[in-house]
Automatic annotation (TrEMBL):
NCBIfam families registered for this protein in UniProt: AGP_acyltrn
Lineage, opening ranks: Bacteria, Bacillati, Bacillota, Bacilli, Bacillales
Entry similarity comment: Belongs to the 1-acyl-sn-glycerol-3-phosphate acyltransferase family.
Natural source organism: Ectobacillus funiculus
Protein name from the UniProt record: 1-acyl-sn-glycerol-3-phosphate acyltransferase
Catalyzed reaction equations: a 1-acyl-sn-glycero-3-phosphate + an acyl-CoA = a 1,2-diacyl-sn-glycero-3-phosphate + CoA
Length: 238
């Protein structure tokens, strides 16, 4: 319990520490090329993600960094075990990324503004029309050269098990033509959700598989592509 309280307070302080960087970065982002803006913005989420994980006492092992295309946007497709998946990806993926995020995140002060700077797209899953618009916005974001992360399970598993991947997320790749980067997250649920929402140290593994390029998925339908990607991610779980 003491670790949980300390971690929560520390994370709150981390968020506050990013606030002075926010306005200058917003102004700078309007005057520099998109690639340079993404690189500079990424420094803060990278810093925040690593420290958020470290305060829990957890260790992250990363495999397959060489598989990340650095010269183009990708759609990162990952399984979703925990709320800690996001800081792990921000801190250890070594590539500027935004997220397809639930719309409730827009209500969180400071964090919401950073997510906008990261080119994140907010989706209201309870509103079909807005969800479709969010997918369209995500496609345009990818076409503009900004990488995005999507969790096709739609919600956290809160365990080591994986839910079925929903096909709608894969429109983001098929309509934009970007590579799909399968990423397997293992161990994050043991930080929080697997302990009755009490923080404990965990050993986390982030495994990055080879990209699936358009030439490979072009002739697949969405169900085939979702199943194919899920099998790759599932195969890296212990």
């Amino acid at each position: 319990m003491i670790r949980t309280i300390f971690s929560a307070v520390y994370i709150f302080i981390l968020v506050l520490r990013t606030a002075p960087r926010l306005l200058p970065m917003q102004k700078l982002a309007e005057t520099i090329p998109p690639e340079e803006k993404d690189r500079l913005v990424h420094k803060t989420p990278d810093w925040f993600g690593k420290r958020m994980v470290r305060v829990t006492g957890s260790k992250v092992e990363v495999k397959g960094l060489e598989h990340i295309p650095q010269d183009r946007a990708v759609l990162v497709v990952a399984n979703h075990q925990s709320n800690f998946d996001i800081p792990v990806l921000m801190g250890y993926l070594t590539k500027p990324i935004g997220f397809i995020s639930k719309v409730e995140m827009k209500k969180i002060p400071i964090a919401a503004h950073w997510m906008e700077l990261m080119n994140s797209v907010f989706m209201d899953r309870s509103d079909r029309r807005q969800s479709l618009q969010a997918i369209k916005d995500g496609i345009e974001t990818l076409k503009a050269g900004h990488s995005l992360v999507v969790f096709p399970e739609g919600t956290r598993s809160k365990s080591g098990e994986m839910g079925e991947f929903k096909t709608g997320s894969f429109h983001l790749a098929t309509k934009s033509g970007v590579p799909i980067l399968p990423v397997t997250i293992e161990g994050t649920h043991n930080i929080l959700e697997g302990n009755g929402n009490r923080i404990r140290p965990s050993r986390v593994t982030l495994t990055i598989s080879e990209p699936i390029y358009e030439e490979e998925y072009r002739d697949m339908d969405l169900k085939e592509l979702a199943r194919y990607t899920q099998n790759i991610i599932q195969s890296k779980l212990s």
